[in-house]
Amino acid sequence: MTPEQSPLGKPAAYTEQYDPSLLFPIPRNKARETIGIGAQLPFFGTDIWNAYELSWLNPRGKPQIAIATFYVPAESPNIVESKSFKLYLGSFAQTQVESLDALREMLKRDVSAACGASVSVRLATPSSEFAKLKIEEFEGLSLDRLDLDADVYHPDPALLKAALDEAPVEETLFSNLLKSNCPVTGQPDWGSVQIHYVGPQIDHAGLLRYIISYRNHTGFHEQCVERIFIDIMRECQPVKLAVYARYTRRGGLDINPFRTSYNLPMPDNARLARQ
Questions:
Q1: Is the pTM of this model over 0.90?
Q2: Same domain, yes or no: 118 and 209
Q3: Is 121 annotated as a binding residue?
């Protein structure tokens, strides 16, 4: 159950007949241990997966389509490797499914089993919801407005600074300059990240340089967001912290991890322009 053993970066035979065994789980604990996260998580949250290439046959053989959204709890012991997820979803292409509810239950059962926790599934269909889908941009103050030099391209928490001896503030900041790389294929993962916090004011230039420092880093989306959360918490000591990243899609899937130290509602799943 390591990325090297997954179908990622390898030739794969695509099947269009339903096959839940294609899902390849990867334990979260190993990556978490490397950044000092133990069994007691310092956050809670969700990984939001949007799947845009889902199609199946109804009982009369007519193709159907939908956009599927999966909500995977951060406390689940496993993530699902993204190519295996794509292969699994592709296996519905020539599979007859009785109804939309039946499809939702199949997806929920299979992905929950792979992740080791209960996963919520929503299906948006052309007839009822496609016209309601919208594109937004992150709220808050853009860090990308800053004109600065940057020359660190591996995560360096020393870039983070905060006014620890001053009165606390509350801010929402975001950047569209997040980039990391797949730990198996080396392909780039492009994303945007939003940071909301209450606590000592974080130095904006240092935070932007820190986000830029992920540019040559290898790690899955969920792992990068958790590292960002831990580094900000340790270096800047906020009283409250939430980190939400939205990555551009690959293979018809986008992954959007959300981590928070306090009780917040589920973040908006509206697509960003690049998604």
A1: yes
A2: no
A3: no
